[in-house]
Amino acid sequence: MPRVRRTAAVLAAVLAVAACTDGGNGGPSPRPGGDGGPALLGTVDLDAAVGGDARLLDLAADPGGDPVALLRDGGTRAWLVEVAGGEDGPTATPLLELPAVGDDAELSVLADGSFLVASTGPTSGYQLLTVRPDGQAKVTALGQRPDRAATALSADDRTLYAALALAAPGPAQLLAVDLAAGVVTMTAPVVPGGTVAALAARPDGGVVALVEAAEGRALVTAYDDDLRPVGEPVDVAPDASVGAPADVDVTADGTVVATAHVSDGRRLGRLVTVVDGAVATSVELDGVGDSALDVVLSPDGATAWVPQADLSYPAELVTIDLASGERTATVALCAGAAVLGDVAPVGADAGLVATGSCVDGDGPQATAFLVG
């Protein structure tokens, strides 16, 4: 799944500007629009689904159905909201109300329909909340209070990997958590040192981490199922002055796909593939300063989808051929500028949902965009 929720911080910062200016999991193959490419099928206001004035924290793919959004208010409540397609456009249906979650909250939907929320609470520290389909809930406290966290779920749903950035002088730590037993089974330091911006499970076990190194580089590092480093770290943008990591995922054949902002103003981005410890494909992305650069991969690992947005550029969902680096399609999400966050597949092959907010006269709203 989706990886650290950089999105929450990006959305919060840019939506504040918008209000003032007023101005890993596989994805599907979107259905062709009138020009042979995918098309925007509609939008839905996520705020309205929970009574308004809510903040979008995460969007998670559901292996058995439609993606689920995690929202919270400014106080004690949070909600899970299902986003689905329909004849009249997308719908947003509240599924469950949760107690307060932290700003770093990440959501996973397990294969059995359970919801797993990882977050840092003001008094509880870092913990996992699991809610089963029958409504039974379990809390697993991990005994840490990180400044930042990233998670990835193993393919068999048995292990949650977490990367915790701890307060100085503590080093960043990788954890493996047995979800059935509710215990940490392994720990290891993040190597090389730095803050993990995103995690993704490897098909042969272990994880890939996208690390923000102290010298301002974005590094891909692989770990085996014992959390030992595999190979050497790979700089995703060695020729750029800045490497601010965004997202990472892994195809079924082990190809790593990573995104990063590569300019001081965040306007420039880059998507790369890493094969056998080296960058194989590199795609430049212009006008992405207001995108979290979340990436979703097709089941065959041939295609990636990335949201592209900046206050001076159109807001689009871009389709990229990973072998050639060619942009094969773009879908306009807003008439003007926007801030864009997460992307997740809808069902088995029914399109994609992107999240964000158009910058218009109605003010910032947490919006889901259905593309198919």
TrEMBL record:
Has keyword Hydrolase?
A: no
The alphabetical list of record keywords is: Signal
PROSITE patterns with a match to the protein in the record: PROKAR_LIPOPROTEIN (PS51257)
Q: From which residue to which does the signal peptide run?
A: 1-21
The cross-references to SUPFAM superfamilies, in alphabetical order and at most eight, read: YVTN repeat-like/Quinoprotein amine dehydrogenase (SSF50969)
What name does this protein carry? DNA-binding beta-propeller fold protein YncE
